[in-house]
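Translate structure to sequence.
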């Protein structure tokens, strides 16, 4: 009878191992431990053994019964935890990922580009680290020329600069050899400067239009078009004479202040805000790019993306450097 009990136990072990559901387990329980189950059958057999053996056999049987109970409850737990891992409810609301957004400067660059694309300008890219030649020399600023000082340039090798402006793209674009040119070069620039309106890292967009018969009137028209589309229909522009080595004549471009509407306030200079430089491309620059100034003329302008964007009336950003601080309190407003 002891052997039969052992057989019963290993039988129970085998089927419990194979059980795949709670229902299987319940059937096994009934088969082994139920009223008419195998265990009770064996118990009934005790009546036929001698009273001397009965006690010992009874203990063996009870032990086997407890083991089967244990095996059953262990398997039950296993099945439960396996099924909870598989639980998948496709209708359950998902955990929302934290969505970020593009940086303000990227939005600004895209908005600026959209406006120029509508009148046929094409976005191009030129190096943000470039040789002294494209940043200065080809722009009519030979080595040692005092005009270079204005650009507060980071030299990273004898002949290599972090471009202090996007004008390095002018001669590079001309060298491609296609005419007419109608480009906007947007790039990161660097200068040794830092205060509320200057940051060491900033962006510029450079426009260059070269064709036969391009005049100041065309420049003025494009600037006005840009100002109206970017700032709103009420804004006006003006050209102030200035001096750049790579344009002749050269101008500073101003836009009427969006806060006071041009009458003058603490935000502007007598009703005008300064956008940046522009001018008619200097014949020497055209020649450096392999273009004959007797046949072709062109205008160029180069402005700070940050500055241009901050001049929108609805933005009041007190310090340009906040754009680079990764301050979420600031960035999340946009
Ligand atoms: N590169 C000049 C600067 O960074 C701005 C500029 C002036 C660009 C005149 C031009 C231009 O294209 O024609 O201050």
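Result:
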């Amino acid at each position: 009878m002891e052997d039969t009990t052992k057989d019963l136990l290993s039988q129970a072990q085998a089927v419990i191992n194979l059980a795949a559901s709670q229902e299987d387990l319940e059937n096994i329980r009934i088969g082994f431990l139920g009223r008419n189950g195998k265990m009770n059958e064996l118990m009934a057999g005790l009546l036929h053994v001698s009273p001397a053996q009965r006690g010992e056999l009874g203990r063996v049987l009870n032990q086997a019964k407890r083991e089967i109970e244990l095996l059953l409850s262990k398997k039950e737990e296993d099945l439960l935890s396996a099924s909870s891992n598989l639980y998948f409810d496709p209708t359950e609301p998902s955990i929302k990922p934290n969505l970020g957004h593009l940086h303000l400067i990227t939005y600004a660059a895209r908005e600026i580009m959209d406006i120029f694309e509508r009148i046929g300008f094409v976005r191009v890219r030129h190096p943000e680290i470039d040789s002294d030649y494209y940043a200065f020399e080809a722009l009519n600023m030979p080595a040692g020329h005092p005009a270079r000082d204005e650009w507060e340039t980071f030299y990273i090798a004898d002949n290599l600069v972090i471009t202090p402006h996007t004008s390095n793209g002018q001669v590079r674009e001309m060298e491609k050899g296609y005419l007419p040119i109608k480009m906007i070069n947007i790039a990161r620039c660097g200068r040794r400067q830092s205060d509320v309106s200057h940051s060491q890292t900033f962006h510029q967009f450079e426009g260059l239009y070269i064709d036969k018969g391009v005049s100041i009137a065309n420049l003025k028209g494009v600037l006005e078009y840009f100002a109206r589309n970017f700032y709103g229909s009420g804004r006006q522009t003006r050209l102030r004479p200035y001096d750049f080595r790579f344009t002749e004549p050269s101008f500073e471009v101003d836009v009427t202040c969006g806060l006071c509407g041009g009458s003058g306030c603490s935000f502007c200079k007598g009703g005008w805000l300064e956008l940046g430089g522009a001018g008619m491309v200097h014949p020497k620059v055209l020649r450096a790019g392999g273009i004959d100034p007797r046949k072709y003329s062109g205008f160029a302008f180069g402005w700070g993306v940050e500055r241009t964007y901050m001049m929108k009336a609805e933005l009041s950003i007190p310090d340009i450097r906040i754009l680079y601080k990764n301050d979420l309190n600031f960035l999340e407003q946009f």
